[in-house]
Amino acid sequence: MAYNKIEEFDQETTQKLAEHYKAILDLLGEESAREGLIKTPERVAKAMQFLTQGYNADPVEILKSALFKEEYKQIVLVKDIEIYSMCEHHMLPFYGKAHVAYIPNGVITGLSKIPRVVDAFARRLQVQERLTVQIRDCIQETLNPLGVAVVIEAAHMCMQIRGVQKQNSVTTTSAFTGAFLKDIRTREEFMRLIGVNLH
């Protein structure tokens, strides 16, 4: 997924969003016309479009754009993929890393496509649980591998700076199909590869 340059955002959308953010600033008790805030509504409008650009990406087409026949039938793992997403409940960021593996069934995809799929789903309003499952299902349904494993570890600013205010908490979610679900040894191998001790 190619990230938009700020200048490339749709001007009409940017303008409409900026009008809303200007109103929000005023409702919060700020003076949206003061020097430091004059450009803020437009900046926020562009930032939000950047942070949610996953709505304009097709994860299935990302995977299909680089398919290759290959008889390799062991784990293919891309780990420590940086994730930046937005909690749909408070519209605050959550961030961390994803570990994604699959076992090919005659077809592989380009390695860079896995992080792009992660980005395509992460750059939307999300919950971590759904994000984990969406990545898993997209890879399973598109590549038809012998199994898919996805683990996400993330810190949520909605927990860190509001609510319970627990700065050091990390949320871990996982989703498996096929061999990773049915074969404990395969799942344990994956967990060892990503550095998780099951014992």
Instruction: Give the fraction of residues assigned to helices.
Output: 40-55%
Structural class: alpha+beta
According to DSSP, the number of beta strands is 7
Please state the overall shape, judged from the principal axes of the Cα atoms: elongated
| Biggest sheet character | 5 strands, mixed
Q: In angstroms, what is the radius of gyration?
A: 20 Å
- Distance from first to last alpha carbon: 38 Å
Q: List the strand order in the largest sheet.
A: 5-2-3-6-7
Mean pLDDT: 93
Strand content: 15-25%
One letter per element, helices H and strands E, the order comes to HHHEEEEHEHEHEHH
Spans where pLDDT lies below 50 across 5 or more residues: none
How many H/I helical runs? 8
Describe the structure.
The chain is α+β, with helices and mostly antiparallel strands and 199 residues long. The protein has helices spanning 11-27, 40-51, 59-64, 113-122, 128-143, 157-160, 178-182, 184-193, and strands at 67-69, 76-87, 93-103, 107-109, 125-126, 147-156, 171-176. The model has no long low-confidence stretch (mean pLDDT 93).
